Amino acid sequence: MQIQIRRVAKTCSEFAARMEEVETRISHLEDEAGSQQVTREAMEKQLEDTQWKLTDLEDRLRCNNLRVLGIPEGVEGSDAHSFMVALFKEALPDLQQWDWDREIQRAHRFPFNRAGSNPVGKQSKVVLKCRSQTQNQTPEKGRVLVESERKLETVGLDERSMKE
């Protein structure tokens, strides 16, 4: 009977040692899981902040874009920027103090549809990237008033401004 009691006591002490080892492992895993939770929350916050900043930057970039409609395909030639600078200088003579070469950073044709081909009678946009947002605020909702020899007229983009 003494031998059996010793075996049971030995088995109990082995189980106690195993339980202590298991508790130590569980404690380490809980600590690691807690630190990973904090790291995950910090990364989620950083991702949310980065997404907000990206959206803000995209919106700010679009704020300085002007879309010009009514310019026939190909009239700008190979240099849309120079054509648009010349067009604005002619169409907006009251704003000669602006350095249009600096104000218009980039100009390019934007296709009418995703395939890039225009249906008959449709014209694509010319998109201008401006240096600052104040250039987007045009009088009379995008209409440009030009004083000619005869009268004050509203000019879209007609043949007179397309001659060159």
From TrEMBL:
Parts forming coiled coils: 12-60
Gene3D superfamilies: L1 transposable element, RRM domain (3.30.70.1820)
InterPro entries: Transposase_22
Entry keywords, A to Z: Coiled coil
Domain of life according to the entry: Eukaryota
Matching PANTHER family: L1 TRANSPOSABLE ELEMENT-RELATED (PTHR11505)
Protein name: Uncharacterized protein
Source organism: Pleurodeles waltl (Iberian ribbed newt)
Higher taxonomy: Eukaryota, Metazoa, Chordata, Craniata, Vertebrata
